[in-house]
Amino acid sequence: MKKALKIIGIILLVLIVIALLVYFLVLRYPNLKKNPAEGKWYRVETNEMKDSEGNGYHALFKKGSEHKVLIYFAGGGVSINEETAKNDNYNTKMVWPDMLANVTMNMGGLACDAEDSPFENWSIILFPYATGDFHAGTGEFHYTDKDGKEKILYHNGYVNYTEAMKKITELAGIDNPDTVVVTGYSAGGFGAALLSDDIFTNYFPNAVSKNVLVDASLLLYDDWHTVATDVWKTPKEISDKLTGNNLTLDCLTALHEKYGDGIHILFDSSTRDGDLAKVQNYLDTGVMDVSEKEADIYQQILKDTIPQFKEIGVSMFIWDGVAWYDDPRNMTAHTIIATPAVWMPFEEQKQSVAGWLTDAINGKLVDYGLDLVNKQY
Known about the structure:
By secondary structure, the protein is of the alpha/beta class. Helices cover 36% and strands 15% of the residues. Strand 7 (179-185), helix 5 and strand 8 form a beta-alpha-beta unit.
């Protein structure tokens, strides 16, 4: 019996060693170093970077051969008050290991290593989402959880972003690209809207082609400014832009006013986004649920916002035809840039979202699918 236990113990030890070797040599990207190799992924971390639970956080980086940079903010919900904090309506921690985090953020989408991708040789900076603050917070939010325990939600998104950007620009030699695209989906799309000016002001001011793509990020809420200042502790120069109930419109308006024709601003959404309809219902009524009624409301919000986007020169791609998960109700999918669908031309538009973005980078700004907001479902 003792001999058998000893053999089992040796086998378990060998398996653990193999698992550790696989993790550190295969699944865990190496830490970013000076003059990183092209085409290789690295993790970017400092002691100041942390997730909502106070554990470690890191961004991901790949250096390309071209003088072009794609900055990509992942989504995953939002926390705006004690109720959302305790109900975990957001990603609370990193997805491990690094390779899985990369795949989870980018399931065949814009930042994947697909052959013939227009971004194949670009430098890419990926920000996983784990702070509940649209990547824009610097503070600690104290709340009581469901078990009555006092806890802290670390809204550390802006700190994580800043620490990573500083380290990458110091070590990676990408401080003077000619083309920069800032994008994100869902919560990450709001992050792209909030942080684009910071990126172009503090890191890439000399980029000739400045581009911002917000994917599936549109919610109306009268208290966005209060949430940003009191809950997330967003830097004042960013939160001051939030003057109305439409966070995305406020941020993109500020970009247009500052950069004029020197920036390409893009927005895409499906017509009846089931996830955004659900969150909009919570913001309106306090109920985190969705039906076709809430999808109708989102479609009307989208319809009402289009003329406002047009006034500030936003190029738009509105789409449908992709169901909201497997739900049989008349709701449409949430986000597209992180999925293989980003490469596929829509039948009605005769264009893909990736193709639309590529044209915009090259100065050709076109709208697609705007009439879909009038469609009866």
